[in-house]
Write a structure and sequence with these properties.
It is a single chain. It is built from four helices and two strands, in the order H-H-E-E-H-H. Helices cover 38% and strands 10% of the residues. The chain has one domain. By secondary structure, the chain is an alpha+beta fold. A two-stranded antiparallel ribbon has the order 1-2.
Length: 99
């Protein structure tokens, strides 16, 4: 950084955060029905959560065709810790579910 600018006091920029859309009940139940109320990785039927396979920041926020149901364990311990490994698997599941 240039020494001159190091000591200048710039006003903080006002950054508007883009508010994330929430998943509607209609979307949640549509995905739940397509997935037969089961985790798409382990088959568990309890503690299900909706997972956005492509993420919510890719202009596909609530497009149900890129969402699957996962149990709490798979959603947090498997997918979010090994996303690069599981994203192709989950995309293939989405393709199969919504074709």
């Amino acid at each position: 950084m240039n020494e001159y600018y190091k000591h200048c006091a710039f006003p903080k920029q006002q950054v508007k955060k883009k508010k994330r859309e929430t998943v509607t009940d209609r979307t949640y139940y549509k995905v739940w029905n397509v997935c037969n109320g089961t985790c798409q990785l382990c088959g568990n039927k309890q503690n299900l959560e909706l997972h956005h396979v492509l993420g919510r920041g890719k202009n596909l926020t609530n497009d149900y065709r890129y969402c699957v149901m996962l149990c709490n364990t798979c959603h947090h311990q498997i997918v979010h810790q090994n996303l690069k490994k599981y994203r192709p698997i989950l995309l293939e599941i989405c393709k199969r579910l919504y074709e």
